[in-house]
């Protein structure tokens, strides 16, 4: 069919999934994106296999959709030298040539440094990038520098989660210790101050995921965590600010 001839496939590594419902949420969000013909997300391999029409949707848009759902993407970003450019029009032609290669998310070319920064998904052939640039009348050199690859992106995600966990664990330990101390003036407000960064900074990824799911009229584990912890947090805030509401006798 005409559509099948125009369609392209991309395999994107996704970060931030915690359950199979997360995978289903991403599939639903991608399927609702104009131009995406088919999307399959594998929770075990953390990869999304997407078939799309490049005339209707770009990989950059697909990547942004995944981000809006509350998840991350691990792609490769590299710098290549470009020979033969003489003006701003050359820059535009090289960027257009690189962007036309299946698997390329974005391409930015700097005339002064004669270098191209390309963001692309795994499986994209460097030979295809060189061929596209050559057909445009220029020459793409060997990869000069790797700014990021799938491994470093995944490690960055793990490092971010670890740092948030460490802070949350430290503050939670302080809160539990204070719970065993005698009451003193300002104690409820101190506990409130310690709990707030745990709820909203350490737990931000759950709010982001829950909001993404809500926008696509679904729910997942992020929704459960965000709703449950928010109920406990705001109940406690009301108890601190309006203790008379909970007075007995």
Automatic annotation (TrEMBL):
GO CC, alphabetical: membrane
Topology of the protein relative to the lipid bilayer: Multi-pass membrane protein
CDD domains, sorted: HMA
GO biological process, one term: copper ion homeostasis
Keywords: Copper, Copper transport, Ion transport, Magnesium, Membrane, Metal-binding, Translocase, Transmembrane, Transmembrane helix, Transport
InterPro entries for this protein: Heavy-metal-associated_CS, HMA_Cu_ion-bd, HMA_dom, HMA_dom_sf
Annotated transmembrane regions: 165-183, 189-207, 219-242
Domain HMA: 8-74, 76-141
Name of one Pfam family that matches: HMA
GO molecular function, one term: P-type divalent copper transporter activity
Subcellular localization(s) per the UniProt record: Endomembrane system
Primary residence: membrane
Protein name from the UniProt record: HMA domain-containing protein
């Amino acid at each position: 069919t005409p559509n099948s001839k125009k369609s392209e496939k991309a395999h994107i590594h996704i970060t931030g999934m915690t359950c199979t419902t997360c995978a289903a949420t991403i599939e639903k969000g991608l399927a609702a994106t104009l131009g995406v013909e088919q999307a399959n997300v594998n929770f075990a391999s953390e990869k999304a296999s997407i078939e799309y029409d490049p005339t209707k949707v770009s990989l950059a848009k697909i990547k942004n959709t995944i981000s809006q759902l509350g998840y991350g993407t691990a792609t490769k970003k590299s710098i290549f030298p470009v020979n033969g450019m003489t003006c701003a029009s050359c820059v535009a032609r090289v960027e257009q040539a690189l962007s036309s290669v299946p698997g390329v998310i974005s391409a930015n070319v700097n005339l002064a440094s004669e270098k191209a920064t390309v963001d692309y998904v795994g499986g994209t052939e460097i030979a295809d990038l060189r061929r596209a640039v050559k057909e445009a009348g220029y020459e793409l050199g060997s990869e000069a520098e790797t700014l990021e690859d799938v491994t470093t992106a995944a490690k960055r995600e793990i490092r971010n989660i670890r740092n948030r966990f460490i802070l949350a664990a430290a503050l939670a330990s302080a809160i539990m210790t204070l719970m065993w101390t005698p009451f003193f003036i300002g104690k409820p407000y101190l506990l409130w101050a310690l709990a707030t960064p745990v709820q909203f900074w350490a737990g931000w990824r759950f709010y982001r995921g829950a909001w993404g799911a809500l926008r696509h009229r679904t729910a997942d584990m992020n929704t459960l965590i965000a709703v449950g912890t928010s109920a406990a947090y705001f109940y406690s805030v009301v108890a601190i600010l309006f203790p008379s509401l909970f007075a007995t006798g």
